[in-house]
Design a protein that fits this description.
single chain, 251 residues, alpha+beta, 2 domains, twelve-stranded antiparallel sheet, 4 helices, 12 strands
Length: 251
C-alpha cells in the first residue's frame, strides 16, 4: 500500500508513505469498449423538517470506437425516490422526461468531453469561456439535456497525476486533509475532508468527507462516497449527517 498526503493530518486508516513506483505519471484512459457499464447514483438527504429522502438514478454507460475517435453513450434507465410524497412526486415529474433518453459524446484521449447533437460535435469550441457559457445555459434551462455530470464524474481523474497538491488545484478546493493510496490491484483510493465555513460565521458549519476509488487500468472512477455532516451541532462521527451520496460504476 502506498500513500501521499497534502495539508492536514491524514485519516488514521491510511499510512503515510511515498507513492513509489506504482504511481502513474497521470491516470491513463483505457475504457472497456462495446459493453454496457452499470452506473448507479443514490443520494440520501435530510429535509429541513428532519425527515429523510432518498433519490436514485440508474444509467448505462458504453464506450465505442467511432469514425472520428471514441464515443461514449449514456442511457438513463430509471429514477426513483423514497421519502415524503410531495418531494418524491416533484422529483419524478422533473426526471420523467429523461427516462429512456440516450446522450452521445465525443471523448478525446485526455478525457475531454464534447456533446454530440444529431451526430455532430456541438461546435462551441474547446474549453473557451463562450463554450462553457453555452453548455452551462443549456444545462440550466434543461437539466439532464446534456447529461454530462455522470460522465464527467466517471472521467474526473483521467489525465491528472495522483498528487494531492495537483488534485486540490484541479478541484479548486482547499481540503483540510487529502490522501492518495494505491492498492496492489491497481485501484487508487483518494480520501479527502473539507470544512465549509460561512462568511458570516467563522465556525465550521459543514464537514464533507469524500472517498473515491479509481481503476488505474481503465482510468474510470469505480465508486465515490460523499458524506456531509453538520459540524455546528457536534464534532466528529457524532455530527448529524445532512446528506450521503453513493456513486458506483460496475466494472
Amino acid at each position: 500500500m502506498t500513500a501521499a498526503v497534502a495539508s492536514g493530518a491524514s485519516p488514521p486508516d491510511l499510512p503515510v508513505e511515498p507513492l513509489g513506483r506504482n504511481r502513474p505519471e497521470s491516470v491513463p484512459f483505457n475504457p472497456p469498449f462495446d459493453r454496457d457499464l452499470s452506473l448507479s447514483i443514490s443520494d440520501r438527504r435530510q429535509l429541513a423538517d428532519g425527515r429523510e429522502v432518498l433519490f436514485s438514478v440508474e444509467n448505462r454507460l458504453r464506450f465505442t470506437r467511432g469514425q472520428g475517435g471514441m464515443i461514449a453513450t449514456l442511457r438513463r434507465d430509471a429514477v426513483d425516490c423514497n421519502g415524503p410524497e410531495p418531494v418524491c412526486n416533484a422529483y419524478r415529474r422533473a426526471m420523467a422526461t429523461w427516462i429512456g433518453t440516450v446522450q452521445r459524446y465525443a471523448i478525446a484521449a485526455n478525457g475531454a468531453i464534447r456533446p454530440l447533437v444529431g451526430g455532430d460535435v456541438l461546435a462551441v469550441g474547446d474549453g473557451l469561456p463562450e463554450a462553457q457559457a453555452i453548455l452551462s445555459q443549456i444545462e440550466q434551462q434543461s437539466p439532464g439535456a446534456l447529461g454530462m455530470a455522470e460522465l464527467r464524474e466517471a472521467l474526473s481523474y483521467v489525465g491528472h497525476p495522483l498528487d494531492p497538491g495537483v488534485l486540490a488545484a484541479v478541484w479548486r478546493e482547499s481540503p483540510d486533509e487529502l490522501a492518495v493510496t494505491i492498492h496492489p490491484d491497481q485501484v487508487a483510493e483518494i480520501v479527502s475532508r473539507t470544512s465549509v465555513r460561512l462568511d458570516s460565521d467563522p465556525t465550521v458549519a459543514i464537514v464533507r468527507d469524500k472517498r473515491d476509488r479509481v481503476d488505474l487500468t481503465t482510468g474510470l472512477v469505480l465508486e465515490s462516497v460523499v458524506t456531509s455532516r453538520d459540524a455546528a451541532v457536534a464534532s466528529g462521527p457524532n455530527a448529524p449527517i445532512l446528506s450521503s451520496r453513493l456513486w458506483r460504476l460496475a466494472r
